[in-house]
Design brief:
about 30% helix, about 290 residues, 11 helices, alpha/beta, D-Maltodextrin-Binding Protein, domain 2, disordered N terminus, 10 strands
Length: about 290
């Protein structure tokens, strides 16, 4: 989960472009099979669904811009909102057939049955998590960024040596928390909080001097949620990426992977990124 400016407000529009209206001449299949082939139509996957007749998608509450907009996943806005409805459309579901469920971030990758078909919540794929759940292929390559107070010492000096001396805090169970330990290696013990809201409060009240989260989230928080804060830079990529989360061994992942590849090949993922994330990407790189 890892993180300016308001994201663009518009309905999911292009997220419904992956429908079954393509012609047989263009796709090599009949119009009844849809863009993913006969084995991944709405009708073909009914036996793999949590509730027949609907696609149940989970996320946390609250959810944040630019991944969602106005804390309403059902409006199809924000990068993850658009991805969710794009996948649904590719599988042959209408907007009304998509239902949203609540799943706290730190519970999502716990082992056991799930009350959803997949979870979309900036969940980074790790080997440890993949032992408990099944992940899709990447729908977003994630980098980490550093949020600090503008008048604080980190803003003035974030050299590799100085970064080790500061007081950090981060959300429990996140790869951002692990990043601090693995790559920054601070001399002070990192403070752990139950939610990202708690982390933001800790920075705002000077309990910590910095925290790490994914770059788009970091930029939005600094611009709109913590007065006097800023993103001083993002760290070099570690190959981290977000995947959709399923219960362990869920067969639905095969068709959802096809849907993600379809959205990638037809330009939808690039379009969603340009619309919702482009303004978050032009920040300097710093080295831990």
């Amino acid at each position: 989960m890892v993180v300016v400016f308001a994201a663009g407000l518009s309905a999911c529009g292009s997220a419904t472009s992956s429908t079954t209206t393509t012609t047989a001449a263009a796709t090599g299949t009949s119009t009844a099979t849809g863009p993913l082939g006969a084995t991944c139509t709405n009708a073909a996957i009914q036996g793999d669904l949590y509730h027949k007749g609907q696609l149940t998608i989970a996320t946390d509450n609250p959810v944040y811009t630019p991944w969602f907009v106005n804390n309403r996943p059902e409006n199809g806005q924000g990068y993850e909102g658009a991805v969710a409805y794009g996948i649904a459309a590719a599988l042959g579901f209408t907007t009304s057939e998509v239902k949203w469920a609540y799943e706290p971030f730190n519970d999502s990758y716990s082992p056991g049955p799930k009350h959803f078909d997949f979870d979309i919540n900036e969940i980074s794929v790790t080997a440890a998590r993949a032992q408990q759940v099944t992940f899709s292929i990447s729908y977003y390559a994630d980098d980490q960024a550093l949020v600090v107070l503008k008048n604080g010492p980190v803003a003035k000096d974030h050299s590799p040596a100085a970064l080790k001396t500061y007081q950090y805090g981060d959300q429990i169970g996140t790869t951002s928390l692990a990043f601090i330990s693995q790559y920054i290696q601070p001399t002070k013990q990192t403070r752990v909080y139950g939610s990202l809201n708690d982390v933001k409060t800790a920075l705002d009240t000077h309990q910590i001097q910095a925290f790490v989260t994914d770059t788009p989230t970091a930029q939005y928080i600094a611009a709109d949620e913590i007065p006097g804060s800023e993103v001083v830079g993002q760290f070099p990529s570690t190959g981290e990426y977000f995947g959709l989360l399923f219960h362990k061994g869920d067969q639905l992942v095969t068709c959802v992977n096809k849907a993600i590849e379809h959205l990638r090949s037809d330009g939808s993922l690039a379009s969603y990124s340009k619309k919702y994330l482009q303004i978050y990407n032009a920040i300097p790189t710093i080295k831990p």
